[in-house]
Specification:
By secondary structure, this protein is of the alpha+beta class. α3 runs antiparallel to α7 and α6 crosses α7. The longest helix is centred in the middle third of the chain and has 29 residues. It has 8 helices and 12 strands. The chain is elongated. Among the domains are: about 110 residues, Immunoglobulin-like (Sandwich); about 110 residues, no CATH class. Helices cover about 45% and strands about 20% of the residues. Strands 1, 3, 5, 6, 7 and 8 form a 6-stranded antiparallel sheet that branches. A 3-stranded mixed sheet has the order 2-12-9, with no helix packed on it.
Length: about 325
C-alpha cells in the first residue's frame, strides 16, 4: 500500500513539474499584433504587424493566409519574416500583412494563433485581438429635399425658339453657299480643291513625343497619381493599336497582354514591362492604390523601353544613302 502511494506521488510530481515547465516555456514566447491605423477610409490600406519575442532554440510556424484575412478584409501582400537578435538567448521575429477593405463597418480581428513546432515541444501562442473601423463619406440627403412649388406661368423658352433659330441659320447658310458657288463658277474657279494631307508620323515618334511631355509635366510628383497612369496607359494603348493593329483602346489589360503574345516580340522583356504598367495602373485606378516613387519611375522607364524595343526602323535604299554620302563629301570639300 505504501509503495502504491509512493508511485502515485512520484507520477503526480512529474506531471506538476512537466506542466510547470510547459507553462514556463510558453511564457517565454510573447506574441503581439498591431495595426498602423485602427480607422481607415474604404479602399485605403494599412499594415497588420506581428511581433514575437522567443528563445533562439524554439521553432515557430506562422499562419499562412490566402487572399483574405477574414470576411471583409483582403490581404494585398506579405513581407518576409524578419529576425532580430535581442540578447544571447532571445530573438525578435517580425512579419507584416498589407490589408484593405471595400466594405464599411467595424471588424474584430480575433487572436492570431502561431504554432510551436513539434521539435520544440508543440503547442501554440496567440496574439492579442484587434479592432478595425472602415468608414466612408456620409451624404446628407436632407439637403436634397425641397418643398413642392406651386404652379407658375412659364415664359417662352429657348428650346421652343430653337427650331426657328436653326431654320433661320440654315436658310442664311444656304444663301451664302449659293452666292459663293455662283461667283466661283462665274470666275471659272474650281469649286473644290484637294488639300494635301500631312504625312502621318510613325507610331513610335508620336508615342515617344507624348511620353516626353508626360515626363515633363511631373504629375505623380504632384500627387496626381491617377491622372499620370491614365495618360501613360492611353499613350501605350494608342501606340500598340497603331504599331501592332491590336484594338487596345477597346480591350482590358488582360486582353491586351493576351493579344501581344501573338506579336513578333524579341524576348519576354517587352511583355513583362507592359504587364507591370497595366497591372499597376489598374490598382491605382480601381483599388485606389498609391504606388511608391520608385514604382512610378519604373513605369515611365518601362514605357520608353517598350516603344524603343518595338519601333519599326525605316531602312533607306542603298542609292539614297550613296547620294547623301556624295552630298556630304561635296560640302566637306567646299
Amino acid at each position: 500500500m505504501n509503495r502504491l502511494k509512493l508511485n502515485i506521488s512520484l507520477v503526480a510530481g512529474l506531471l506538476i513539474w512537466f506542466g510547470g515547465a510547459v507553462n514556463s516555456f510558453s511564457q517565454e514566447i510573447k506574441a503581439k499584433a498591431s495595426l498602423d491605423s485602427v480607422t481607415m477610409l474604404i479602399g485605403n490600406q494599412t499594415h497588420l504587424r506581428l511581433d514575437v519575442k522567443q528563445p533562439k532554440n524554439v521553432i515557430l510556424n506562422f499562419p499562412v493566409f490566402g487572399d483574405t484575412l477574414q470576411k471583409g478584409i483582403d490581404i494585398l501582400g506579405t513581407t518576409e519574416l524578419d529576425t532580430t537578435t535581442i540578447d544571447a538567448d532571445n530573438i525578435l521575429l517580425k512579419k507584416s500583412y498589407l490589408i484593405t477593405s471595400f466594405d464599411s463597418g467595424h471588424y474584430m480581428i480575433p487572436p492570431i494563433r502561431i504554432n510551436i513546432d513539434q521539435q520544440s515541444g508543440g503547442g501554440y501562442v496567440e496574439t492579442n485581438p484587434l479592432a478595425l473601423k472602415i468608414f466612408t463619406f456620409n451624404v446628407d440627403t436632407t439637403q436634397a429635399i425641397f418643398d413642392i412649388k406651386g404652379v407658375e406661368d412659364v415664359p417662352y423658352t429657348f428650346r421652343e425658339m430653337l427650331p426657328w433659330l436653326v431654320g433661320g441659320v440654315l436658310l442664311i447658310g444656304f444663301v451664302i453657299l449659293f452666292i459663293w458657288l455662283f461667283r466661283r463658277i462665274k470666275r471659272k474657279e474650281p469649286v473644290f480643291s484637294l488639300r494635301r494631307e500631312k504625312p502621318k508620323l510613325p507610331a513610335h515618334v508620336v508615342a515617344l513625343d507624348e511620353l516626353e511631355k508626360l515626363k515633363k509635366e511631373k504629375l505623380w510628383q504632384t500627387d496626381r497619381i491617377k491622372e499620370f497612369y491614365t495618360r501613360l496607359t492611353e499613350i501605350l494603348r494608342v501606340y500598340i493599336e497603331d504599331r501592332f493593329q491590336i484594338k487596345a483602346m477597346e480591350q482590358t489589360s488582360d486582353e491586351i497582354l493576351e493579344a501581344m503574345k501573338t506579336a513578333d516580340l524579341e524576348g519576354d522583356a517587352v511583355l513583362e514591362n507592359l504587364r507591370q504598367i497595366l497591372k499597376l495602373a489598374d490598382l491605382v485606378k480601381f483599388a485606389k492604390m498609391n504606388p511608391l516613387p520608385d514604382e512610378n519611375d519604373l513605369s515611365m522607364m518601362n514605357a520608353f523601353f517598350i516603344v524603343n524595343q518595338t519601333k519599326i526602323v525605316e531602312v533607306k535604299p542603298i542609292e539614297e544613302i550613296a547620294k547623301e554620302s556624295e552630298v556630304t563629301n561635296d560640302e566637306k570639300q567646299k
